[in-house]
Amino acid sequence: MHTPNEHESHDKPASMREGYEVTDVSVQGIMVFLTGLFISVGVFFVLCYGLGIVFNNILKKSDGPPNKWNASTAAPSGKLKHMESNPAEVQQHLQQLTQTFPTPRLQQDDGNQDVANLHAREDLLLDHYSWADDSHTKVRIPIDRAMALIAQRGLPVAEKPAQGQLMAGDSTPVVQAPLTNGFARTGFEQGKE
Predict the structure, then answer these.
(1) How buried is 140 (Cβ within 10 angstroms: 0-12 exposed, 13-18 middle, 19+ buried)?
(2) What DSSP character marks residue 68?
(3) Which has the closest alpha carbon to 127: 112, 113, 147, 151?
(4) Can you tell me the distance from the alpha carbon of 40 to that of 34, in angstroms, rounded to the nearest whole number?
(5) Sequence-distant (≥ 6) Cβ neighbours of residue 97 within 8 angstroms
(6) Cα angle 155-161-162, degrees, rounded to a multiple of 5
(7) Which residues contact residue 66 at a Cβ distance below 8 angstroms, ignoring those fewer than 6 apart?
């Protein structure tokens, strides 16, 4: 059992007599550790660099040769050219790309112009007379005129079929038992067909 004042060292009596550790740190052990550390970092760097080259070659093969869509990224540039930021140049490049991009393209909406155009076309249909079909037999009238005609004439009323008329294959239903518990009787139970 060790006491708290007792120190572990190679030369305990000399350390106790002097009041401090008299043996030095092993320089050989430190050098072995640092050498191993630098070798492992170097091996790791070489391994990562080699994997990067392999993956880049695989990506180049799968992407194919440069074409007009990726030529700007494939073209070699000056030193740190890709780090520069010029918003006007970026916008001009983007505009050139969108002009040469094949259809169908995304909408370039500068507000709500598409919605305004849609409402303008709808207003033309709602506010003017036009033909509703190609054979020129039906006319589309303005909505204000249609509302005035409905207010003047009223809506057409659907006629009820005669009580005695049944469809082909139909028969008058016969109620054998009450359809409800008596609280809310059906039309058949009340005798009103």
Answers:
(1) middle
(2) T
(3) 147
(4) 10
(5) none
(6) 130
(7) 74, 75
Contact 152, 144 (CB under 8 A): no
CB 129 within 8 A of CB 141: yes
Is the pTM value of this prediction over 0.85? no
The tokens of 88 are what?
């006007």
Integer angstrom CA distances of residue 147 from 11, 88, 144, 153, 186: 113, 55, 5, 10, 39
Q: What is the mean pLDDT of the chain?
A: 76
Q: Tell me: the pLDDT tens digits for 28-80?
A: 999 999 999 999 999 999 999 999 999 988 888 887 776 766 665 554 555 55
- The tokens describing 12, both together, are 């305990």
Question: If phi over 0 gives left and psi between -120 and 50 gives alpha, with beta otherwise, what is residue 191?
Answer: left
Residue 189, H or E segment = helix 187-190
